[in-house]
Amino acid sequence: MSRGKRIAMILLAVFLVLLIIGPWIAPQDPNLTATADRLQGPSLAHWFGTDHLGRDVFSRILTGGLTTVGLSALALGLSILIGIPLGLLAGYLGGRTDWALMRVVDIFLALPEYIVAMVIVGLIGPGSQNLLLAILVVKWVSYTRLARSVVMQEKAKDYLMVSTICGASTFSIMRRHLLPHVVGPTLALATMDIGKVIMLVASLSYLGLGIELPAAEWGAMLNEAQTYFSRAPHLMLAPGLAIFLVVFAANWLGDQLQSIYATSGERREEVNAAA
Fold it and tell me: What is the pLDDT of residues 158-217, one digit of tens each?
C-alpha cells in the first residue's frame, strides 16, 4: 500500500471514529444555551468558542458531524442498494427492461443534482427524512449506470455462457459472477461520491431546506454563523473546516481506491463517467 493510501485511510478512519463517538465525548450539551457566554472566542472552557446563544461550538461540531456525515452515508448506502441491483438486471436482461430503465437514468443524469434535490425538498418541506428522500432520487442513477456498464463488459465473456448452459439461474449468475466485478468500481465511486453528498446535505441545510434547527448540523451552523461573521469568524471557520477536511479525506481515498479497482482504462472511464 502506497504512502498516499495509508495517509488517506488513516485520516478517514480518525474522522469516522470522531464522528461516531462525538456525541458521547462532547464536553458540553450541544443545545445548552447560556446567553451570558454568547459569542466568546476559543478558550480552555470552550475550545472553539461559543455561538450567539452561548452554546459550545466544539460540542456542536462533534455532534453535528454524526448528523451531517451519518445522513450522507445512509443516503449513499441506500442509493447503492437500489442502484446496483437495477443496473445488474438492466445489463443482464437487456431488451425492453434495459431500454426503459436507461431512459429513466438518462433523464435524471441530464438534470443537475443540486437543483433537483433542492426542488424536491422545497416541495415536500425540510427535515432529515425528506432530505434523505431527495438524495436517493438523485444518486441511485449513477450506481445503476455503473453496474450496467460493468455487466455489459462481462456479459460477452465465455464463462457466463458456460454458466448459462450449465443451468445456473439468473439470480445465481448475477450474485456469483457479476456482482463481484461491480464491488470494486462501486467502492471507488462511493468514496468519491460521499464528499458530494456531504456537500449536498450541508448546502441544503445552509439554505434552510435540510436538517431543522436547533439540531446541530454543519451546514445549518454555517447559516446561523453568517450574521456574526465579522464579530465571531470562528463560528463559520469551525464547521467550514470540518466539512473541508472530511470531504478532502474522502476524495483523496477515492482517488487511491480508483487506482486499485479501476486498473484498466475502460473501468476507470466507467467510474469517472458515473461520478
Answer: 666 666 666 666 666 776 667 787 888 888 888 888 888 999 999 898 888 888 777 888
Domain range holding 65?
3-19+48-274
Q: Is 36 among the domain residues? A: no
Q: Is residue 38 part of a domain?
A: no
CA distance 213 to 187: 33
Helices (H), the chain: 3-25, 57-93, 95-109, 113-124, 128-155, 158-165, 170-173, 179-206, 218-225, 234-261, 265-274
Buried b (16+ CB within 10 A) or exposed e, 26-59: bebebeeeeeebbbbeeeeebebbbbbebbbbbb
Task: Calculate the alpha carbon distances from 59 to 107, 161, 177, 187, 207 in Å.
Answer: 42, 58, 47, 31, 22
Q: Which of 45, 50, 17 is nearest to 35 (CA)?
A: 50
* CATH number of the domain bearing residue 73: 1.10.3720.10
pLDDT tens, 55-67? 888 889 988 888 8
Q: Are 68 and 201 in contact (CB under 8 A)?
A: yes
Is the residue at 149 inside a domain? yes
Distance, CA of 39 to CA of 55 (rounded, Å): 9
* Domain total of the chain: 1
Task: Quote the CA–CA distance of 125 and 274 in Å, as a whole number.
Answer: 29
- List, in order, residues 6 or more apart from 231 with CB less than 8 Å away: 39
Residue 82 domain-assigned (yes or no): yes
